[in-house]
């Protein structure tokens, strides 16, 4: 049986610091999953569309396959979010990150639907917006690999202005590998080392 005793000021600060660190590590572990889920799903769909266009001779309608991205990734992300033991613990940083992804995600959805009705460089715009969201999320969470990979995604997205379809789809997938998959694996590995 534990005795109730008063903690010294130093012990209190150490306990609070340790609890904050444990919460951040646990949350960060589950924050890597959405990056990996959305990144890998985007890459797979990009490859399927590119293959359909180049090898199977599919017409522009194959682009409807992009709508499979949120259908697959959203439930998978929610599933791993529910597995997070600290999911009820939300702080200011979590809310800001949610606002960032909600805003950028909504804009991308509107642009994606609009692209079926008016010509636009949709792959460039989506890659640029998602890279910006990634960079901002990295800045808010103070995770440098996410910031660096997000900035790399911003720079690489401009390549899409100079490459024509269907090869731009491969570059689009590669950008998601750089901005989401790489930092997702770095974050996941870092958390495994701490556990």
Would you kindly provide a brief summary of this structure?
With 195 residues, this protein is mostly helical.
Describe this entry's structure for a reader.
The protein has 195 residues and is mostly helical. The chain is built from six helices and no strands. Keywords: Membrane, Transmembrane, Transmembrane helix.
Tell me the strand percentage band.
under 5%
Structural class: mainly alpha
The average pLDDT is 82
Task: Pick out the low-confidence regions.
Answer: none
Radius of gyration of CA atoms, rounded to a whole number: 20 Å
The tally of helices reads: 6
Largest sheet geometry: none
The tally of beta strands, per DSSP, is 0
**Whole-number total of structural domains:** 1
Q: Distance between termini?
A: 28 Å
Oligomeric state of shown chains: single chain
Keywords: Membrane, Transmembrane, Transmembrane helix
Transmembrane segments: 35-53, 59-79, 99-116, 122-139, 146-163, 169-187
């Amino acid at each position: 049986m534990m005795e109730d005793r008063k903690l010294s000021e130093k012990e209190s600060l150490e306990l609070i610091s340790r609890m904050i660190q444990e919460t951040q590590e646990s949350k960060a572990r589950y924050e890597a999953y959405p990056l990996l889920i959305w990144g890998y799903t985007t890459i797979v769909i990009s490859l399927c569309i590119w293959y359909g266009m180049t090898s199977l001779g599919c017409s522009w309608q194959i682009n409807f396959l992009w709508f499979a991205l949120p259908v697959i990734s959203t439930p998978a992300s929610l599933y791993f979010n529910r597995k997070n033991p600290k999911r009820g613990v939300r702080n200011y940083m979590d809310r800001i990150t949610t606002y960032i992804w909600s805003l950028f995600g909504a804009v991308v959805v509107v642009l994606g639907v609009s692209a079926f009705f008016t010509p636009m460089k949709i792959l460039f715009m989506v890659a640029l917006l998602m890279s910006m969201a990634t960079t901002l999320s990295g800045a808010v969470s103070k995770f440098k690999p996410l910031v660096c990979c997000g900035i790399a995604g911003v720079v690489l997205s401009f390549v899409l202005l100079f490459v024509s379809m269907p090869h731009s789809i491969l570059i689009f997938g590669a950008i998601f590998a750089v901005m989401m998959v790489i930092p997702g694996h770095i974050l996941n590995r870092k958390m495994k080392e701490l556990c």
